[in-house]
Amino acid sequence: MLSLILALACASAPTEPEPLVAPGPAPTALIAPAYADEPTAVAAYWDGGSLSYGEVTSPMKHQLDQMLAEYLMGRYDAEYQATQQKMDEKILEAVAKKRGLGAIEDLLKVEINDKVSKPTDAEVADAYQALQRKLRGQTMEEARTVLEQAVTQKKQGERYSLYIEELRKSYRATVQLTFPEVPRIEVSADDDPSMGPADAMVTIVQFAEFQCPYCGKARESTDKVMANYEGKVRFVFRDFPLEFHDKAIPAAIAANCAGKQDKYWPVHDAFMADQQSLTEADIQRVVKAAKVDLPAWEECRKDPAMEAEIKKDAADGAAAGVTGTPAFFINGVFINGAQPYEKFKAIVDAEVTRKSKG
């Protein structure tokens, strides 16, 4: 490699080629920066041609929109958490002063530390099972001090969460940061399985697959959304099987064929509950439990149109910029991965408010 570099460095200078056209002055627009709202601005120039900003960015629009959305939402999350933390500190200071306890630490000792019971033997045993790998072969008795500390910290954290929530309600505390206006990506619900009213104010389109453990994890958030916003949210499931998951397409076909008999969601829920159990025997067990008409279901699985529909979902997702699962579009606002409920809530609340205002 070094000899190649030296050879290139020592080679005689090449003769400059004749220009294709007579060189002229660079366009004035080249001097100014090219922004998203100036698609005709010149992004690159050479003798005889140029590239506009729009020509460069149009093919990657979804990618750029996702990057901007993730930045804006990440900033919002950071600002929200910082605001809530500062608000909680001010409330705790006010309560400590009112009760004549001085510092926040004194208040937390009374309301948190003093109200948490000592770890029981059963709690220590549970902690030992959960932390066994990190204890590097120590017996439960050898690690008892560490285990008791872990149990105590967990109980203190739970007590603090309850206490601070009580104070927020008592002081009618609310964070009023405005959710940012983020780029929206139009995604069709197609004719895929859905729950919730068709005319709901908010539509969540999820691209996911049954062999992805993060898709199962995401259900904690989406189930909570559907329960807390009943009648206001429609949830749509679209298939996006990943190439390295060999059971994703067979499971999707099985669920969609069950859907032909109005049994999609029981099968969907069972698959999402355990991504490790998707063998043919597992699939048969699940659909039997859903009480499908087995001969009709088996015939449906042979239909090439079923796999074609799944691949169409995946193609639509890829066109919208989806590269992994789970991916969500909440009225076109993109969320990537198994995000906590609070992130969904922030977007859904903003969308409900926006729709309510007309």
Structure notes:
The chain is an alpha+beta fold. It folds into 2 domains: 63-170, no CATH class; 194-356, 3-Layer(aba) Sandwich (Glutaredoxin). Helix content is 52%, strand content 9%. It has 13 helices and 7 strands. It has helices at 2-10, 53-57, 61-98, 104-111, 121-131, 144-170, 213-228, 248-259, 264-273, 280-289, 294-301, 304-319, 341-356, and strands at residues 42-46, 49-52, 194-195, 202-208, 233-239, 327-330, 333-336. It has a 5-stranded mixed beta sheet. Helix 7 links the parallel strand 4 and strand 5. Helix 5 crosses helix 6, helix 8 packs antiparallel against helix 9 and helix 8 (248-259) packs across helix 11 (294-301). 25% of the residues are buried.
Gist of the model:
This protein has 358 residues and is an alpha+beta fold.
Task: Detail the poorly predicted runs.
Answer: 1-22
At the first level of CATH, the class of the largest domain is: Alpha Beta
Structural class comes to alpha+beta
The DSSP helix count reads 13
| Largest sheet entry | 5 strands, mixed
Mean pLDDT: 89
Looking at the overall shape, the CATH architecture of the largest domain is 3-Layer(aba) Sandwich
Radius of gyration, in Å, reads 29 Å
Tally of structural domains = 2
Strand line-up of the largest beta sheet? 3-5-4-6-7
| SSE ordering | HEEHHHHHEEHEHHHHHEEH
Q: Indicate the percent of residues in helices.
A: 40-55%
- So, the CATH homologous superfamily of the largest domain? Glutaredoxin
- Percent of residues in β-strands: 5-15%
Number of strands: 7
Q: What would the CATH topology of the largest domain be?
A: Glutaredoxin
